[in-house]
Write a structure and sequence with these properties.
This protein has 7 helices and 13 strands. With 256 residues, it is of the alpha+beta class. The mean pLDDT is 95.
Length: 256
């Protein structure tokens, strides 16, 4: 499909998206992703897409891309639609729904992490939802690439550890699993929620925290979670070697 040149998602980042894993033509965690998209719509004062229409568009994207077998990255995009010049949305708003699919090979090997200078705005609504305004994440990942790393750790505007450029962040210290609290201005990741649920069921001590980067100096292990990679270990952070968490393999099996 083609978007009109006055689409608000294109011009202003006015809209939302969800990226999820599809395996052999079946989207994973579909209900959780659609529930998060609905929450984002409520926050942005957008009507939510019709559930049946979204699923039909998603499945059609997999077929169109020839990805009915194997792993695929499925992206659902919901823009605020066309509008005139300026910031005000037209009334009524006529959002646009589309989906794309791309191959998503299983991640190979651990990540090399750096701490990015680009900060995440803890007070912004956009930090808590998958809006089409993703420039801070793009710049943080760019920093990582230029430094020869795979992924960036982002601090928020208060100097607290927030997330990775493309995922939630976890670390292990003194036998406890730690992750930034939602109040740090992070996305409520679908895989993040699954990790927290698994840890509590498995009896692993877990804390959602608001801490500065010195917390990572004491981390024994670090991993990044998202819907495509599951729980991917880090081999180093800012050049400091990290160990593999002894329970990460069990976690990865539980997430599969």
């Amino acid at each position: 499909m083609s978007l009109p040149l006055n689409d608000r998602g294109l011009l202003l980042g006015d809209g939302l998206f969800e990226t999820l894993l599809a395996v052999d033509g079946a989207p994973r965690d579909w209900a959780a992703h659609m529930a998060r998209l609905e929450l984002g719509c409520a926050a942005l004062d957008l009507p939510a897409p019709d559930a049946a229409a979204a699923q039909a568009v998603a499945l059609a994207a997999l077929v169109s891309a020839g990805l009915e077998a194997g792993r695929a990255a499925l992206r659902i995009t919901w823009t605020a639609g066309s509008g005139g010049r300026g910031l005000d949305r037209p009334e009524p708003c006529a959002p646009v729904l589309f989906a794309t699919a791309s191959p998503a090979p299983a991640p190979a090997g651990p990540l090399r992490l750096i701490t990015a200078a680009t900060r995440r705005n803890a007070g912004s609504i956009a930090s808590r939802h998958k809006t089409l305004s993703y420039l801070d994440n793009v710049l943080a990942r760019r920093e990582a690439s230029l430094a020869g790393a795979d992924e960036a750790v982002m601090l928020n505007s208060d100097g607290q550890v927030a997330c990775a450029a493309a995922g939630n962040l976890f670390w292990v210290a003194d036998g406890r699993l730690m992750t930034p609290a939602l109040d740090c201005g992070i996305l409520a990741g679908v895989t993040r929620a699954k990790v927290l649920a698994w840890a509590r069921q498995a009896g692993v001590p877990v804390s959602e925290v608001m801490m500065g980067p010195s917390a990572l100096d004491e981390a024994e292990a670090v991993f990044v979670t998202n819907s495509l990679a599951g729980a991917r270990a880090a081999q180093c952070l800012d050049g400091r070697p990290l160990r593999e968490w002894s329970l990460r393999a069990k976690l990865s099996l539980a997430l599969d």
